[in-house]
Design a protein that fits this description.
alpha+beta, four-stranded antiparallel sheet, globular
């Protein structure tokens, strides 16, 4: 019987792991960095979802990490975030092939894999006799926290910016294009525990556009109601959420589908910088029936 190489990360090691190990590869590590930070924050606040964070305790310096986000809706996949510092890919491969912590029956979604690790993850999926599918390639856009905190913007007289509430979740979820892999509980936790802002009609109170700081600690769920597009509300709400994140000491970052030219242009216009090669989202599917 193989011994498990990974151990659950205690909160006492989190600060060192994030600030002294991961930040050597900043901002390439930004997704894993804020996934870990957000996980401990949500665990302290009793989120509906659960996190498991694993590392190699006897070799912290290599930055090898696997995080698993499980949601209460059983029909949705676990989200898996993986990372290792550059140069440690072979050790990461050995770890991934030996660990038993991933529940392959849940057909996990590997979120924003560093491209240098993509082939290792796909080989592991094949080793398990399963198929993998590219869900999307994400472009990482980011901004330093101090820059974000200094942003300024004007709010048109006919609208106001306000906090989202749980009463908005059903409506927001009905328009979310990623509801195939992200359940409603993700929005529930985000609205209660993280930043969620909307642009509202000042007279009717109608919610026109919204954005959040999501489960991985980055800006997510940007949507403008179809009838209100082209009026600058998308840029306005991105500026508002970005500024609040910066004021909270968070370096705003977003993972945007490389095919979403509108959002890519919007974030560039706000001042976000594109970084690194695309980060693949890979979803695990059923058994590979083509194998002998």
């Amino acid at each position: 019987m193989r011994s498990e190489v990974l151990e659950e990360m205690p909160e006492s090691i989190m600060e060192y792991f994030c600030e002294q190990v991961l930040k050597r590869d900043w901002p390439n590590c930004i997704h894993a960095y804020y996934f870990i930070k957000n996980a401990f924050q949500w665990m302290r606040k009793n989120s509906a979802s659960s996190y498991k964070l694993y590392y190699i305790s006897n070799d912290v310096e290599n930055g090898t990490f696997i995080g698993i986000l499980s949601r209460p809706e059983e029909e949705y996949p676990d989200v898996v975030v993986t990372y290792t510092c550059p140069g440690n890919e072979e050790q990461f491969r050995r770890m991934l092939f030996s660990t038993e912590i991933i529940n392959w029956q849940k057909k996990p979604l590997f979120q924003a894999i560093p491209f240098r690790m993509k082939a290792i993850v796909e080989a592991m999926i094949e080793e398990k006799g399963l198929k993998s599918k590219l869900y999307s390639n994400a472009v990482l856009k980011w901004m330093p926290a101090d820059v974000a905190a200094r942003l300024d913007y004007e709010i048109p007289e006919d609208v106001f910016i306000g906090q989202l509430s749980v009463d908005h979740i059903d409506f927001i979820y009905s328009l979310w294009t990623h509801s195939d892999v992200y359940p409603k509980s993700d929005l529930w936790d985000t609205v209660r525990l993280n930043i969620g802002l909307g642009v509202f009609n000042r007279h009717s109170g109608e919610l026109l556009a919204w954005a959040m700081c999501g489960s991985y600690g980055g800006l997510s769920t940007l949507i403008v109601q179809p009838d209100y597009r082209g009026r600058g509300f998308g840029k306005l709400i991105v500026l508002a959420v970005t500024k609040v994140m910066g004021e909270n000491g968070v370096s705003p970052h977003a993972l945007i589908n490389e095919k979403n030219k509108v959002s890519l242009g919007l974030f560039k216009n706000v001042g976000y910088v594109k970084h690194s090669t695309p980060l693949p989202y890979v979803v695990v599917e059923g058994p590979d029936t083509s194998r002998p």
